[in-house]
């Protein structure tokens, strides 16, 4: 069964944030995800989720100073206290929103980082992820890590699929999982279906977008019908987050999703 979630940081930007939940539901989405809920009261978001009858499937931990360019705290040496606070805050929202998983963004390496600095980030990342997985396990939730392409996010610490898989293996926590974003994987690693198969057991969430412009999945070099078919054959029962920038009005661009229950006409 293909279950599609609308990424409300990118889709339905024609509406104010709290109105995007109903817009997504009326287009056939059963779930929603977005970057951050923290500018809103958790109870207000819970209310719109319930009104729209959609599930909250994912959001990110507080990322540090986003406006100043920070992209997560999980691998940043010296920021461990802030990272721990961010885990607690995200899990508090997850409890209210009944969200089973949260994404811990790795953060950026300093420009020109030498091997010692990279090793320091790696060790910090491992320690922080162990802490996050331990806290999330207390309420049965998953922590996700996502390799992000370094063209869009230069310096992002976690950029390759193999790196993420090695980290998941070394930590060995059942609730530390891979956020497999095919857009990033295509740019950094390619070989999408083989990655999907090899990493299948570690995957906690999937995201899609056309490559390279990050528009609708039917625009660009990736043939998503083949990927969805393989997911179905593998027995994937998780969510697929639609995390792309619509070329024009969101709803008109949903034609690509009609075989999977979306409706392009309002
Ligand atoms: O950019 C992406 O692909 C994501 O999923 C992240 O949540 C970015 O923050
Ligand atoms: Mg993503």
UniProtKB/TrEMBL annotation:
The active site is at residues 146, 243. One of its GO terms (biological process) is glyoxylate metabolic process. Keywords: Isomerase, Pyruvate. InterPro entries: HPT_OtnI_isomerases (IPR053398), HyI-like (IPR026040), Sugar_Epim/Isomerase (IPR050417), Xyl_isomerase-like_sf (IPR036237), Xyl_isomerase-like_TIM-brl (IPR013022). It holds the Pfam family AP_endonuc_2. The keyword Methyltransferase does not apply. Transmembrane segments: none annotated. One of its GO terms (molecular function) is hydroxypyruvate isomerase activity. Residues 21-256 form the Xylose isomerase-like TIM barrel domain. Belongs to the hyi family. This is Hydroxypyruvate isomerase. It comes from Vreelandella nigrificans.
């Amino acid at each position: 069964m293909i279950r599609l979630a609308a990424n409300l940081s990118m889709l339905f930007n024609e509406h104010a944030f709290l109105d995007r939940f109903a817009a997504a539901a009326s287009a056939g989405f059963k779930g929603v995800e977005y970057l951050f809920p923290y500018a809103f009261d958790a109870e207000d978001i819970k209310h719109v989720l319930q009104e729209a009858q959609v599930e909250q499937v994912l959001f990110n931990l507080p990322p540090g100073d986003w406006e100043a360019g920070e992209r997560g705290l999980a691998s940043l040496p010296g920021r461990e206290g802030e990272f721990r606070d961010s885990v607690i805050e995200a899990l508090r929202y997850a409890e209210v929103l009944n969200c089973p998983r949260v994404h811990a963004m790795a953060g950026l390496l300093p420009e020109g980082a030498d091997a010692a600095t990279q090793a320091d980030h790696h060790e910090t990342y491992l320690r922080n992820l162990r802490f996050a997985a331990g806290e999330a396990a207390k309420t049965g939730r998953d922590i996700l890590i996502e390799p992000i392409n370094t063209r869009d996010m230069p310096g992002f610490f976690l950029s390759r699929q193999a790196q993420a898989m090695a980290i998941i293996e070394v930590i060995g926590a059942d609730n530390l999982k891979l956020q497999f974003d095919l857009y990033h994987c295509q740019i950094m690693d390619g070989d999408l279906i083989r990655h999907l198969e090899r990493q299948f057991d570690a995957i906690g969430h999937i995201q899609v977008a056309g490559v390279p412009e990050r528009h609708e999945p039917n625009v660009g070099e990736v043939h998503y019908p083949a990927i969805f078919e393989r997911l179905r054959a593998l027995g994937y029962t998780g969510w697929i987050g639609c995390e792309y920038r619509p070329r024009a009005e969101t709803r008109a661009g949903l034609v690509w999703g009609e075989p999977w229950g979306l409706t392009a006409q309002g």
